[in-house]
Write a structure and sequence with these properties.
Two copies of one chain form a homodimer.
Chain A (H helix, E strand, L loop, with lengths): L2 H12 L8 E6 L2 E7 L9 H10 L8 E4 L3 H13 L3 E6 L4 H9 L3 E5 L3 H15 L2 E2 L6 H16 L6 E5 L4 H10 L4 E7 L4 H8 L12 H4 L6 H9 L3 E5 L1 H15 L5 H12 L10 E5 L11
Parallel strand pairs in A: 2-10, 3-4, 3-6, 4-5, 7-8, 7-10, 8-9
Antiparallel strand pairs in A: 1-2
Helix pairs in contact in A: 1-2, 1-6, 2-3, 2-6, 3-4, 6-7, 7-10, 11-12
């Protein structure tokens, strides 16, 4: 089945469970840009799309769902599981921080905070899966996940997207893979990664997925150590460019979104915009650019 | 000239200067509701509409503009004046607080922080107007202001608003007057006021504008001591109901907008929603409700 068809089916499957997030045309720092406010999705990021698509197209075992996640994916899986009546056990690394841990806990999951970083949580989740037969939802490198994330681009086109180029932040690559799967060659998709967390950039250079060190202000959302194979395949086939941005540019874009638009997003949610504002990506004259705002789970919680 | 015509003209006049703010349909606490995110307007509230409409339809004197405001109106006037190349002197009461004072200063106005409350700032602004011939922009009770604010409702209908009833927070009444002027009897408009700052409610009871005490969490935006006469006239003619909400309900609605939608707004911006969520306004079965999110200038600044 072609990606467009998978994504169309995913869109129909999840329609009753996800929000149609708003879009707008705006000028920021003198640059016209189309925005989609996907951080307004359930649990504050696009991740709910892939989670629902996965859970709705699979027979979930009695043992329920298991996931390891430092944040947005874990919250989305926990939310989708709760809405669909499944048990979910989420392994969260301690370094995720209290805001994201509280967000996941609020979804009603069986939350297991694991000392250390993501790798430890992933190991514990795998043990649980083997021991119980629980189903694991991959955060980015699974067909159902990618097809679910692709619905955000299908929805944006249905809302009248008017752009030559779409800038998308990349961590493990589930979101951009979905966008590439949906758009094909119809529009240009540009990947944006933090300089200190650039698994796609490294893989495009090496010609294969390679492990990278991850750090920086957006690492708790974009800090995949290795790009997904689905993403890399689509990116190579479509000649995608990966643009790198500094942490300082990400923080400036985050501040501008608040100062100019009263949108308070996490650093990962401002990363794609950072490429445009910092000049890391320079549109040609007349090129119409769109930026997907992908996540809003800022820490600390501003109302806590 | 009828209000609809004035508002149509205002819409054409200000189109190049204001944002078309996004709308969405969402379910909050189990209640379906249409939202318009007007806090994404320039300077974080709908006030930019009235400010631009006023400045664009008047010959601004050499002495420029003067306004007294503790917040959103002052920021909007300062912004509009700067964009149109006029000098603006804004008198701000000290109690407005550092966030709103910084917001106004950032627009490039000649900012005068006045000890005390709004009345002192208004007195100083009046002195300046008399001494210099500067033009004063009224925050709510002037035809040009009301026509400008009415464009938000015209825009929402153009964006496909699907609602029987629109809930609007009321301070001095400029925004709701514009909505009433535009909608006439086509949709029901419900006023929402804080219990501790309810100039329209008091005026509807007394049959004429009366002075009220103002306090509470939304007072720095909704704390008008006396309702505007334009607003009261339209509200009486159209039989508008004013629903009162407690501060606690406003803060709960504010928290829910962040928790569920990642929209961080000031208390005034959550006041209309509070009526729906607290049950102060109970829709009839099948009644489709819309809520205008009108301001986002929260204090303290979450990124400061």
């Amino acid at each position: 089945m072609a990606w467009q068809e998978r994504i169309s089916e995913a869109g129909a499957r999840i329609a009753a469970h996800v929000r149609r997030t708003p879009v707008m045309q705006v000028e920021l720092a003198g640059v016209p840009v189309a925005l989609k406010l996907e951080q307004m999705q359930h649990t504050g990021s696009f991740k709910a799309r892939g989670a629902f698509n996965t859970l709705l197209q699979t027979a979930v075992p009695e043992a329920g769902i298991v996931a390891a996640s430092g944040g947005n994916h874990g919250a989305a899986v926990a939310y989708a599981a709760a809405r669909l009546g499944h048990r979910a056990r989420i392994y969260v690394p301690e370094i995720a921080g209290p805001s994201k841990i509280a967000l996941i806990r609020a979804q009603g999951a069986d939350l297991q905070v694991v000392p250390g970083a993501y790798a430890e949580a992933a190991a514990r989740a795998a043990e649980w899966r083997v021991a119980t037969g629980a189903m694991e939802v991959h955060p980015y490198d699974a067909e159902a996940t990618v097809a679910g994330q692709g619905t955000v681009m299908a929805e944006w086109e249905d809302q009248g997207l008017d752009a030559d180029t779409v800038l998308i932040a990349v961590g493990g690559g589930g979101l951009i893979a979905g966008a590439l799967g949906w758009l094909g060659a119809r529009r240009r998709v540009v990947a944006v990664e933090p300089e200190t967390s650039c698994a796609l950039h490294a893989a495009l250079g090496a010609g294969a997925p390679v492990d990278v060190e991850v750090s920086g202000v957006a690492a708790n959302a974009l800090g995949a150590r290795r790009i997904g194979e689905i993403c890399l395949g689509l990116a190579q086939a479509q000649g995608v460019q990966s643009v790198l941005v500094r942490d300082a540019a990400i923080l400036e874009a985050q501040a501008l979104l608040w100062r100019e638009l009263r949108q308070l997003v996490e650093p990962a949610g401002a990363t794609a915009l950072a490429a445009l504002l910092s000049g890391a990506y320079r549109p040609a004259p007349g090129e119409r650019v769109a930026v997907l705002i992908c996540g809003g789970n800022i820490a600390p919680d501003p109302l806590a």
